[in-house]
Amino acid sequence: MLNQNPEQIARDHIDKQLIASGWIIQDKKKFNLAAGLGIAIREYQTDIGPADYVLFVDKKAVGIIEAKREEEGIHLTSVEEQSARYANAKLRLLNNDPLPFVYESTGEITRFTNYKDPKPRSRNVFSFHRPETFLQWMKEDKTLRARLHDIPTLPIEGLRDCQITAITHLEKSFKDQRPKALIQMATGAGKTFTAISFIYRLLKYSKAKRILFLVDTKNLGEQAEGEFRSYTASEDNRLFTELYGVTRLSSSFIPNDSQVYISTIQRMYSILKETELDESAEEENPNEQFFEPKTAVPVGYNEKVPIEFFDFVVIDECHRSIYNLWKQVLDYFDVFQIGLTATPDNRTFGYFNQNLVCDYGYEKAVIDGVLVPYNVFTVETQITKEGSTIKIGEKVDKRERLTRKKFWEALDEDEVYSGKQLDKDIVNPSTIRTIIRAVKENLPAMFPDRFLTPTLSKGEGDETEIGNSEILVDAYANGFEVPKLLIFAKTDSHAEDIIEIVREEFGEENKFCKKITYKSLEDPKSVLQQFRNDYYPRIAVTVDMIATGTDIRPLEVLLFMRDVKSRSYYEQMKGRGTRTCSVEELKAKGTPSARFSKDHFVIIDAIGVESSQKTDSRPLEKAPGVSLKDILANVAMGNTSEDMLTTLANRLIRLERQLSEKDKLKFAEQADGFTINHIVKQLLNAYDPDTLTNSETGIRNVMRGFAPIEIEKAIETEKQKLIEAAVAVFHNPDLRDFIVDIRKKYDQIIDVVNIDAITNIGWVKDHASASSALIEDFKSWIESHKDEITALQLFYAQDYRHRTFTYKMIKELSEKLKTEKPLLAPLTVWRAYEQLEKTNGSTKSELIALVSLIRRVSGIDTMLTAYDKTVDKNFQNWIFKKNAGQHNAFTEDQMQWLRMMKDYVANSFHIDRDDFDLSPFNAEGGLSKMWQLFGEETDVIINELNEVLAA
């Protein structure tokens, strides 16, 4: 209505929101409390003056609303005292108690206080609560915030320290009524298990009504559902789903009889917008889309899902879900919010009010042995770095992107391309082959213990060197077992090329290497399950599906053949390799040759992903290079801003010029008979000023005499009809796929002219300085403790060879090192040495590694040598000396016994009489057998071996 003052405008907005929330608005002179469950009476008289609105539920006064003009939005907390006075005032005609539910509202901003809460505190709410909610709250002895104080102390059995910290600190945050909390836990540390544990406690002890578990891909939702269904409550010993209902939303219908709801944030957004969503829109992480509108399309109130429908929202991968379009879903609900992420950035901390209740990053998880560290191996080729040129007149293969159909064509000009164009505009099979061949050649050096047959055919003491092709032949001929390896590809087409070349270069069959993507013809879940649990495939190639949230413990190598610009997304991708895996699990799940537990993984960087610039920033509006696929996905998600529809119209105009008549007809078939030109016209008309003005004028003429709020509502409805009509065809996923696929028919050039070559290969040099610093730190610690720790005194003593050290001494030294300097764990220092110098052998345990490292640092060894190799060599020398001048100093039975003693010393560092009661000696007759074989020489042999083997 024209000429309304600000207070009247504010009350119009408040009226509209109250009606949407199920309230009946009445005038104080014509009230009827029997007209419905919830009645809001304007200007109801109290003993201190009229209250703007008094709320009645089931004929009983329960709350008030203090209305203010929009400009007062910044002062609403100052109005709380005034609101409280009205809430505590006596109402005309009634002998009422103080009213517990109090709002301050401008119609744009609304704050709410529940005075039944302990330490009542106001909070922003999207809209007003429903009358039936207040009716339920009035029946409860305690509010949710009061019941949070009833949660008992957490039983810690079966929980990791980081999980105990997360849950206990989170529950304290709840008791302090902090609305948002952030849990940072490294990928693989058990975020989802932690979340289910505290969700169980919230349901059991605080009697939470409903909890929403938000994810951003369908894949993560399915995994979360699986974990809920397999979770057994330690306090109850029953499955979670035997106690509480768990529903994963796959349509717009939300049942109200569950306690836990799992949904993608895309689906929840579409539910609030009351639009349909095809499941294909849930397959990709929306954080990877490159178009964001200037302003997010607003969410409106939805009576089917009121703001109080949930009590808590848990946001998985929350660093991706708190921006623009998606933030509205979180702002809509009146809930406590709990964010879960491994890779928060500054905006994540800011959104969750810097309330970090658990800070358990990757480094801490590695120190605790929850996750494993990694090394980076780089493979750089000339063409990936510098690009290349195909000369004019050269006959080349061209290939349609979609069908992969090939044809020959002579170039009519030089084709100059950069490395960034590879596998998009240009495909150079030689580049892919060169990288895969280099990976194949170097895997045996990275994993020298992975042989299905006992040993390589090489001389004693020889080492497998990176790039040694002779060793390569021996390695694969002698049964080298390729560790589980995951390749990140750029596109599905790129993945197809990689798979073909991997199978060729490794000389293997189809099942050796498979693709795991959403568009894979073979069921991607089935292939993923095989990769996780079976021997085949050894190598998997993915584009999108298992970048995040997939647990593959036996995975030991990540090969990056695509770059990643998002820092957090890259960390998530690396997280696929961080899981620990016992030797038993490695053997059982596809790597029978494994002899040790997984203690690290390897990143092979073939694209410069480790050194490329990463950013945490979100894409800006109309960022260059936005894909048509992303634009269509945004529109299908309900992102129908003017910028979005205009951009889509322009893309379709360009596409229409390039299509054949046959393809235009196919488009119309998919688009309900509409041509591209017709759809473009509708898209542009949706925000055309003349069209909108004509529509508004027509409505005002037809609705003369109606209430202004009804006229404005009709005008807005008509605007939305224009928009919905314009985008209706794009809800069809088949049309969206057709548009994207038809665009892909542009040809790729296959460059078979330029042969690629390796320009740089080896462990990443950036790690050299870090490794050097780590070793120096280790040396300093050893040096500073050499006079106080017995084991070190023995190493540095002049008469070292005539003294002995025991397993217990080394164990105590190891524990002290890990306590004082956890980052200097022996296996970590060993890998640092491997980055800087040639080493002899591979470490088999932490204690053996420690002895080997101390020998290197103290100068006993000039090369870092596995202690068992030192013992082997010293044993051979000792036997040689014993045999000098005679054919054989020992019988075969004696030699067998001596070898057992040698192996025992290699693992336990010392042997004495008592040790013969232990394995393996006890099974062979123990000390008595030793006496039988060596007689009075027994003690001499024992002492001599202790001395010479440790030399």
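[next item in queue]
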Amino acid sequence: MSAAHPAPNTHPTSPAPGRAPLPPGPARRSAGTVLGAATVATALMAGVFFSFDVAVIPGLGRGDDRTYIGAMQNINVAIENPVFFLAFFGALVLTGVAALQQRRLGRRAVLGWVLASVALYVVALLVTMGGNLPVNDELARAGDPARIADPAAVREKFEQTWIALNIVRTTVCTVAVGCLGRALFLYGRGDAGARTR
């Protein structure tokens, strides 16, 4: 008499990484909402920096030195408003909260991409606070463009440094958006798996 062979297990006990079904309830819905909001906020900041790279700075570059200095001084004052700060700091806060939620849900694959986005956005913050803001402050201290003795020297000292720093911010923020997009994709796959069970 031949020994009976057990039927192969067609239902794996451990789901694939990033595809574990999410627990039902408000925690799952909140995690998806926060992750989406973090992606939007980070994308807005990448868009702000990108617009300077491709439109604002090239446009100002067509003007004379005094016009360039005055316009940048005005922009640096005008951009310090509640709407800008809401997106600028909100992107970091929302992404940080999203990371905590994914950790609590046990979504390790999603969490890895969210943490990568947090790290990249922190780089953008450090570049802004340690690079762009000091350069902006120095330009402001130059005073009224009409009274600057050598506006060409002031512009030259500001322009190339600021542009290089902004390119870094644009790059890291864009990659951060890509990371959050990947996190949303993995999160959605797991959520879909939970709904079909």
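[queue empty]
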